[in-house]
Write a structure and sequence with these properties.
two-stranded antiparallel sheet, 6% strand, mainly alpha
């Protein structure tokens, strides 16, 4: 079977591609019901498959959600790949960070024990690589429909938000004491 038949990409796009990330949504995932298929793929134009996988793993350590599918973290990789295609500084920052992680990991940071990976992530705080990944991840990870579905956020509901439409239906939030809730505006 020709490569483009497997990936579904036009031959020209496949030849231009630098790397590709792929995965499968968990059956129990909220996203599995939203997606047209359980398998997903992300074509990378700037980063290699390995570099994309390192970015994804690093992002998971920055904002860990064990039940959140890799497909959502892959959006971070996609965004950074797009930024790197047009901004040489971003490209160099990310590539040098991945190189540094691979050096720490003896050639392949992804083969390192996850607990040691977390130590590595923490040791890079304040570096341009860490700041770039943290600022991109926080925006991209939490501002998309897949994350909204996973976390149970229903989106905006007009001027009063969720005040009169189940504002407290997010089961993962702790119940604040009444004094911390503030006044309820009149209708």
């Amino acid at each position: 079977m020709p490569p483009n038949a497997r990936s579904g990409l036009p031959r020209r796009a496949l030849l231009k591609s630098t790397g590709m990330l792929t995965g499968t949504l968990a059956l129990s995932s909220v996203l599995a019901g939203l997606a047209p298929a359980r398998a997903w793929a992300l074509d990378l134009g700037t980063f290699s498959t390995h570099q994309g996988a390192v970015i994804l793993a690093f992002s998971r350590h920055l904002y860990p959600h064990p039940t959140l599918d890799d497909a959502v973290y892959a959006l971070v990789v996609k965004d950074l790949d797009s930024q790197a295609a047009t901004d040489h500084a971003v490209q160099q920052t990310v590539l040098s960070g991945v190189r540094e992680l691979d050096q720490i990991g003896g050639g392949d940071w992804l083969k390192r024990d996850p607990a040691l990976q977390l130590v590595d992530v923490e040791s890079m705080q304040g570096t341009p690589f860490f700041v770039t990944l943290r600022t991109t991840t926080v925006v991209v990870l939490y501002n998309n429909d897949m994350a909204f579905a996973h976390f149970g956020y229903g989106g905006k509901e007009g001027h009063l938000g969720y005040l009169h439409k189940g504002f407290n239906d997010l089961r993962w939030l702790l119940e604040p004491p009444a004094a911390a809730s503030g006044p309820i505006p009149p209708d």
